[in-house]
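Before a computer can learn anything about folding, someone has to put a protein's shape into writing. The outcome of that step, for a single protein, is printed below:
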Amino acid sequence: MRDPRVTGTAVVVATSIQPSVPGSRYRLGASRSRRATFAIVAIGFVGLVGYGLVANARICGGPSKMDIGRLTVKKYAYEAFPAFRYANPGRVCPANLGELNTWMDSDGVKDPWGTEYVMHCSPVGIVVRSAGEDAIWGTADDVWSDR
């Protein structure tokens, strides 16, 4: 006798579809909507976790004190000082770094470790230095704007 599921060369695959009964949790297509809901929730969860990791990396793994010191001395030398020279064409150098704070994001002239920045000014330009983490001038961790 011939198998009723085989017709010619095509094979009919039997599926187990639950009957659609009113009030039943096994409605036709319910599993498809459940899968779609699960997929949306999973994608949202992965997105939130991913965003949390990125946001956490920015907060916890943000710039180090050394990075902030390097950026600050360069900003004094390459942004604030040229703006000072443009605003004061008759002056070669500011009296102190405090005069450059008009063009900086902060009012202080201390590095991230609490030591004051030092400025060396000439008609050619300015060099700003930080003593670095050890707060001792002339050591390997000093930060210079021209290096």
Q: What stands out?
A: The chain has two domains: 1-62, 65-144.
